[in-house]
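Re: duplicated header lines in exported structure tokens

Our pipeline writes sequence and tokens for each protein into one text file. With two proteins the header for the second block appears twice in some exports. Here is an export where it did not happen, for reference. First protein block:
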Amino acid sequence: MPRRKAALVTGSTSSIGLAIAGELAAWGMNLMLNGFGNPAEIEAQRARLAGMHGVDVLHDGADMSQQAAIEAMLARAARRWGGIDVLVNNADIPHVAPVDDFPVDKWNAILAFELSAAFHTTRLVLPHMKFNRWGRIVNVSSAHALVASPGKSAAVATMQRIVGFTKTAALELAELGVTVNAVCPGHVLAPRVQGQIPDTTRSRGRTDEQAGRGLLRAAQPSKRFVTTDEVAQRVAFLCSDAAASITGTVMPIHGGWTAH
């Protein structure tokens, strides 16, 4: 019987990351969840995915801004499964502020948590992938890898550099059976965005529906939020054998944002 593939999804205890983890588990992959949250809720998620899909699911709370924690998490995965075959770099830290008011510690944390973390996870999974001449790496970026928005200097800088990192790694690995791609979601109806809608409703005297459309009006011509399932399904496809010839790509999932 062929060995079951193992996947690591960073930032996967909620929202987009959890949806991606669920999709990969449904495809029959063993799974390393990563992220913070209520321990009881995380354990319930872990047990649910394992029971529903008959796969081995672990959780590791590694702080993705810490190199040593990342190395320990990947070493744990190697002991359990021999290595990671599918890597999805999804962890992020949101913060919005003008450049001259952006907290320096927050800037440093975002670059470490999102950009340096992707470098460390990638370098650590590659020996296993190269040995097997098969691997899938997907970096979850955002529409801000393609366009800028005021107040989001750290996100824009990080996401655009993630795309550059994606393309460079894809070229280095193109002959080795390892693909590297990025997906760029627009506004996703996730808890973070849902939390903004009631505040907008109260402050501007709008209904929740009007407030939600206001978040979309300037960006997504579709005037609808991207769903976490839509992102998860695109990521899972890029991790499949059917996507063997897709590498170095940047896949927008943003309702036409960059068609303006």
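Second protein block, exported in the same file:
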Amino acid sequence: MTSSSREIAEIITAQRATEGAGFPIRRPFPTPQLDNLDPFLMLDEVGPIDWPPGQAKGAPDHPHRGFETISYLLSGEKLHEDSNGDHQIMSPGDVQWMTAGSGIIHSEMPSPAMIKSGGRAHSFQIWVNLPAKNKMDGQRYQFIANDEMPLGRSDDDLILVKVIAGEAYGVTAKIDTYVPVTLQDWTM
């Protein structure tokens, strides 16, 4: 493996905002500086925020159409429910990949335990544009629990990679994608 360095072309400051019922996010794109990364429509870092008991916020029912959302949970618990009847509590390390296709209504709320006890919420969500020919396809929901995530390792065991989408160290993700993207969590 060779190493090379490159100059930093530009520094983009993530925009701070609140979404849904009032949870904080940082959004590096889209912004006025960085607004066309097709097929990637949006990247949000949700939190981190420490919610007191009874105060955790989420995103109540809202529609999506023509793209996929990928949620990767770092801490806390999130309850996903959608108009297709999918229902899932996400825990740290879990990933959900929702294809909105021709349209879906869903919510992403703190789990009942998170609402009751509070705690740290921290996650990432990426929106991926569907190809024009797939924008009106049916909806689907894919969930991979942390303990079922494919793991790749370097020969010397110094690198561990969770393969959420794509391939690393000969290990292929379980998630089926419309757009060939790579999404991985590396520990070195």
